[in-house]
Q: What sequence folds into this?
C-alpha cells in the first residue's frame, strides 16, 4: 500500500485527524441540528466495609450520592473543555443516577444526556459518568486505597444519521 | 447504636462530611505542605480493528496519542474544579504515558503527579487517566461503539503522614 | 398523605428534582427556542466615606465601575458552570448598569440579558448582578468591612410559555 | 485640592487602582503567607409556600440543600476567575451551611473559608454565599418570581496584619 | 461638536459601548444565525538554533507541534470567556495549521473557524492563533528568550450581512 | 548520530518533552519557590481613523482601555489552563498598561507579573499581553478588518537560578 492511500484510509477512519494526521475539530456545519440522546454507564467497586460506610454517610440527609450526581451533571457541561476535539454543544438534559449494588459491592452509575445539535452526546454522557465515579472515589479514598472505577461504556445512543445503537449487554 | 454515635462514626470515616452528613471541603490548614506523589492507571479496551486504526493514525507525525496525553495533563490541572470537595493544589509535575497493548487489545494509560501541598494528589492522577481515556475513546468512537474504559485505579502514593501505598497488583 | 403522592407533588413543584428527590438538569428538548429576556437588580450599601472614595476613584478615566460592569458581563457567560442545574444557553445580549445612589449611599446595579433559547435567562441576569456587586465590594473592602450586598431580585422577564413577569415594586 | 494630591489620596484608598486610576492586581509579594479565615453570610427570602415546597423537596434523601452547599463550595474555588482583581489563593477549607429560617421565611447561608496565603479570603467566603443563594433561587424560581437574596455581608475575619474584624450584628 | 453628538458618533463606531461609553455585550438577537467562517494567521520568529531544536523535537512521534495545535483548538472554544464582550457561539469547526518556515526562521500558524451563529468568528480564529503561538513559545523558551510572536491578523472572513473580507496580502 | 543520542539531545533542549519526545509537565518539585518577575510587551497597529475612534470611545468615563486591561489581568490567571504544559502558579501581582502610540498608530501594551513560585512567569505576562491585545482588536474590529497584533515578546525577567534577562531593545 502506498503512503498516500494509507493516509486516505486513516482519514476516513479517524475523523478527528486531517490527511496529515493532525488533530482538528472536524467540520459539522453541513449537518442538521436534531435531537440526539446518549446513555452511558460505569461502576465503582470497593470493599464491603467501604460500601457500608458510604451508605451510612448517605443516611437521611447525607450528601454523599448528591455530591457525585451534581459533579457528574456539571462535568457534562464541561465536556468540550476537557476533550480537546469535542464540539461545544447545547445540552437540553443531563441526568445522573447512582445505585448501590451490594453484589459488586459498590455503585452503578448511569448518565443520560440530550442535545438538539449537529453531533451526538456520547462524550458528554461518558464524561458525566467518569466524573461522578471519580467524585465517589474521592469521598471514600480515606477509607480504602484499592477502589476501582470499571467499565465506563456507552449503553445506547439515538438520533443522527448514523443510526441508533444499543449495547448488546443484557 | 444511638443515632449520635453513628454520626460520629461516619464523620471519622468520610472526612468530606461534617457531623450532619453535609458536604464540606475539609480543613487541612494544620497539615504541613510536603512533597507527595501519586501514580494512577487505567486501560481502554477496543476491537482489534479499532486498535489498528488508531496505531495507523498515530503513524509518523500523527497526533492521536499526543492529544490524549495533553488532555490528561490539562485535566489534572482542572481536578479541583471537577471534583467538588478537592482542594486546589499546586502541581509540580504531571506526566501521562499511553502504551499500546496488543493483548488487550487497546491502550494502557498511566499518570504520575507530584505536589508540594498539604494533601495528596490521587484525584489529580486519577482524573488525568480518566480524561486521557475519554479522549482516546473520542478519537475512536466513529469506528466502534463498544469501546470500554476499564480499571481506573491508584497504583501508588507516597508522602504525607498516612504512609505510602503500593497496590498489590503484580 | 401517602409517601408516593407527596413525591409527585414535590416533583411538580421543584422541576430540578426527579421523583426520588435527586438533582437533574431537566429535559427542555421539547420546548421551542424563542427570544427571552430577563432584567435583574441589586444594590451595594456602604458608608458615606466609602461611597465618596469610590466615586473619586472613578473620576475621569478611573476603572472602578468599568471593572464591575465587565465582571458582571463575564459572569453571565459562566452561569451554567456556577449554578449546577442551569442549562447552558447562547446569550445574545448582556448589559450591566451601575448607578451611584447617594441616598443609599452606595450603588444600584441592573443587568439585562437576552437569549434565543428553550428556557429563560433569569439566572444569568441575577448572576451578572451578584458578581458585579461582589466586584464592587472587592474594590472597596480595604476601606470598610461593613459593606452589604442587598436585594438581588428579578425585575422583569419576558418570552416563553409561562408568560411575562413584572415585579410589583414601584 | 490639586488633581495630583487627589490621585495620591485615591490610590491610598482603593488599592486595586494605580495612581492613574487603572485596574491592577496589587503586588502582595512582600506580604507573608499566614493562616487567614473569613466567615460571610446572607439570606434568601421567599413566600411561605415556596419555603415549604423546598423543605418538602429536601425531605429524606432530597438533594435540594446539598446542591446549594456544593455550588457554594465550588464557587469559592472559582473566586479569582470571577472577581477580576482577586489574587488566586490556595484554599485549605471551605464550608457552607444552609439553615431553614421559618421567621424569614427562607434560608440563612453562612460560609467559612481558610487560606494560608498572603491576603484574606473575604471574597471567597462572600462568593460562596452568593452562589449558594443563587442556586437556592434557581431551585425555587419555578414556584415564585419574587424571591430575594438579601444581606450578603462579612461576619468575621481573622489573620493578617490589618487585624481581626467581627461584625457588630447581634 | 457638542458632547451629545460626539457620544452618538462613538456609539455608531464602537458597538461594544453604549451611549455612555460603557461596556456591553451588544444585542444580536435580531440577527439571523447563518454559516460564518474566519481564517486568521500569525507567526513565531526565533533563532535558527531554536528553530532546529523544535524541528528535532518534533521528529517522528514528537509532540511539539501537536501540543500547539491542540492548545489553539481548545482556546478557540474558550474565546468568549477570555474576551469580555464576545458572544458565546457554537463552533462547528476549528482547525489549526502550523508550518515550519525556514526563511523566518520560525513557524507560520493559521486557524480556520466555522460557526452557524448570529455573529462572526474572527475573535475565535485570532484567539486560536494567539494561544497556539504562545504554546510554541512556551516549548522553546528554555532555549531562547528573544522569541517573538508577530503579525496576528485576519486573513479572510465570509458569511453575515457585512460582506466578505479578504486581506490584501499577497 | 545514533537515534538514541539524538533523543538525549532533544530532551536536554526541550524540557517539555521526555526522552520519547512526549509532552509532559516537567517536574519542578526540587526547585525552590522564590520571587520571580516577568515583563512582556506587544502592540496593536491600526488605521489612523480607527485609532482616533478608540481614543474618542475612551473619552471621559469610556471603558475601552479598561476592558482590555482587565481582560489581560484575568487571562494571566488562566495561563496554566490555556498553555498545556504550564505549571499552575500563585500570582502575587499582575499589572497591564496600555498606552496610545500616535506614531504607530495604535497601542503599546505592557504586562508585569510577579510570583513566589518554583518557575518563572514569562508565559503569564505574555498571555496577559496577548489577551489584552485581542480585546482591543475586538473593540475595534467593527471599524477595520486590517488591525494587526505585533511583536509580542519578553522584555525582562528576574529571579530564579537561570539568571536575569533584559531584552536588547532600546
A:
Amino acid at each position: 500500500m502506498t503512503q498516500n492511500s494509507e493516509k486516505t484510509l486513516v482519514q476516513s477512519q479517524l475523523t478527528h485527524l486531517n490527511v496529515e494526521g493532525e488533530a482538528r475539530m472536524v467540520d459539522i456545519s453541513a449537518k442538521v441540528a436534531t435531537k440526539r440522546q446518549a446513555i452511558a454507564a460505569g461502576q465503582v467497586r470497593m470493599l464491603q466495609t467501604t460500601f457500608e460506610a458510604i451508605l451510612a454517610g448517605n443516611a437521611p440527609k447525607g450528601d454523599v450520592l448528591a455530591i457525585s450526581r451534581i459533579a457528574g451533571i456539571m462535568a457534562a457541561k464541561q465536556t468540550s473543555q476537557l476533550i480537546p476535539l469535542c464540539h461545544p454543544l447545547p445540552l437540553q438534559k443531563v441526568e445522573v443516577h447512582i445505585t448501590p449494588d451490594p453484589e459488586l459491592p459498590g455503585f452503578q452509575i448511569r448518565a443520560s444526556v440530550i442535545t438538539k445539535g449537529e453531533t451526538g452526546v456520547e462524550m458528554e454522557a461518558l464524561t458525566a459518568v467518569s466524573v461522578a465515579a471519580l467524585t465517589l472515589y474521592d469521598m471514600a479514598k480515606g477509607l480504602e486505597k484499592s477502589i476501582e472505577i470499571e467499565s465506563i461504556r456507552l449503553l445506547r445512543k439515538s438520533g443522527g444519521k448514523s443510526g441508533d445503537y444499543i449495547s448488546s449487554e443484557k
Observations:
- Chains B and C do not touch (no CB pair under 8 Å).
- The domain at 31-161 of chain B is CATH 3.30.70.640 (Alpha-Beta Plaits).
- Residues 30 and 107 of chain B are 41 Å apart (CA to CA).
